[in-house]
Structure formats: structure tokens, C-alpha cells
Amino acid sequence: MVHFTEKQDIILQIVFPHGAEVIVTMGYTDNPMLIDVFMKPAASDRLKTEGLCGVFSGNSTDDFKHSNGSFSRDVGERSFPREFSMSWR
To answer: What is the pLDDT of residue 21?
Structure first.
């Protein structure tokens, strides 16, 4: 489904047969264009995910698990986002 609003934002919603959803919004702000991607796993995906979107366990402390199985030291550290995302590269 593609939806256009008065602000010329573009919203793309993809719903997979098993219930997972991907929602992409693109809109003009102070930046030339802002793109957000939201992923909603299906209930059947519980405890079967890993990576940048977490493990979908309901426990936020295990959402930042690196590809080698370790966890980020401190989410408040400035190096945290880069360190975490680069582990999944």
C-alpha cells in the first residue's frame, strides 16, 4: 500500500503473509529528505530474530547483542551505535 498525505510524505507499508510488516516513511523536513524504516515482526518470529532489530524476546537488555554474541558495554557511550552496527556488517 502506498499512501500520500497533504505534506507530500510517502508511506509504504508491506505486510507479509505470516504477519510481519515493514513500514517506510519518506518526508521532507529541514533535511532534504528523511527516511524512516520500521519493522514489526510477526508473533511467530518471537525468539527467532537477531541483528540490528534485536532478538524480539520482550527483554530490552538483549536487544544490542553483537554478531559475536557479546553485548554492548554501555548504550550511553558515544561509540555505542557505531560499535554495535559495525558488528553486523
So the answer is: 92
DSSP conformational letter for 77: S
Count of beta carbons in the 10 Å neighbourhood of residue 64: 19
In angstroms, rounded to a whole number, what is the distance separating the alpha carbons of residues 63 and 81?
Answer: 12
Q: For residues 40 and 89, give the distance between their C-alpha atoms in angstroms, rounded to a whole number.
A: 22
- Distance between CA atoms of residues 24 and 37, nearest Å: 5
Q: Where are the domains of the chain?
A: 1-42, 46-89
| DSSP 3-state of 61 | helix
pTM for this predicted structure: 0.57
Alpha helices in the chain (DSSP H): 80-87
Q: What is the pLDDT of residues 21-70, one digit of tens each?
A: 998 888 766 666 678 888 888 999 888 887 777 788 888 777 778 888 88
- Which of 8, 11, 10 shows the shortest CA–CA distance to 22? 11
